[in-house]
Amino acid sequence: MNAQHTPGRLLYMVCYKTGPSSYQTYWNIYEADLDRQNALVGERWTVLRFTWADVVRRPARVAEVVAGALGTLAATPR
Question: pLDDT digits over 49-63, tens only?
Fold first, then answer.
């Protein structure tokens, strides 16, 4: 999960995770998702979570949230 940085280039560590489309599947992988998210946050990643329905039915809203996160990161001193 290490990100590489090229001097002189900004690097934003942002990932997104979509939830499974099935309620039953969700509980089978919930703990693994939390472990993975906590590891990413520990390495200073910004983690955005969306449901599959968000991505499929509201892609403009997902793009808006991602753009907002990138804007926040760009404005935050590193």
Answer: 888 888 889 999 999
